[in-house]
Amino acid sequence: MNNKSKDESKEEIVKYKELYDLSREVFSEELSRSARIDNKASKYLTVITFLLGAYAFFCKRILDSFLPPTSLLEWILVVISILLLIFLTIAWFITFEIIVIHEFRKIPIDIDFFDHNELKEIYYGLSVGIKNNLITNRDKINRKSKKLYYSYNLIRMIVVTLVILSVLFAVHAWLNPQKKEKYERRWIMMSEDPKKPESEKPTEPKPKPHVKPPDFDLVTEGFNPSGLQKKGEKSRD
């Protein structure tokens, strides 16, 4: 009987160890899934930041071209720009919320638990604890996964809306050549170096006061210019 009971005890230990190993593997895999979601969210955040730059590029040109809008096409462009800004803002906040640090359950190091229990009870108790805390972690990670899915769909909508906005803006520029030329002149003026203010321009030095002028030569068209020249020299003397 003793040998039989020992064999049964060993089988239980092996059984609960397998249960513990499986539970721990699933628990670790769930935490790894959270890390992968955070990695994807950081990449999505980079894409959204790039799309914000592209939106600012088009938005500035729309504001420079027509404001306030006067035609149906211009109103459509303004409405699409507002919707695009709303989509970008929501997508950025949702994606940023994913990568914010969340609290997850981790396997503790409890020495008293190991001291007051046998090996099979340790395996079984840890397996039960892992199962209960796995449910809590999985709920939080599933919420992160849903937000990542929403962020992905918003990015797709933003890209499509941005393409539509660029096409409509090109159509507007083609239908309104005068506004296009006005916009191009404004863009050229903005791209040039701004003129320095009057205070920064270099000032020319002013002449010194009470400067004595030089003696002027006496020139004549008469018969004896040399004689006049001598008279002039004597008068100066």
Judged by helices, strands and strand pairing, the structural class is mainly alpha
Number of strands: 0
Proportion of residues in extended strands: under 5%
- Could you tell me the mean pLDDT? 77
Largest sheet: none
Distance between the termini: 152 Å
Low-confidence spans: pLDDT under 50, at least 5 residues?
none
Helix content: over 70%
- The radius of gyration computed from the alpha-carbon positions, rounded to a whole number of angstroms, is 43 Å
Principal-axis shape equals: elongated
What's the helix count? 6
What sequence of helices (H) and strands (E) makes up the elements? Answer: HHHHHH
Number of domains: 1
General description of the model:
The structure is a single chain. It is built from six helices and no strands. It has 237 residues and is an all-alpha fold. It has one domain (9-200). It is elongated.
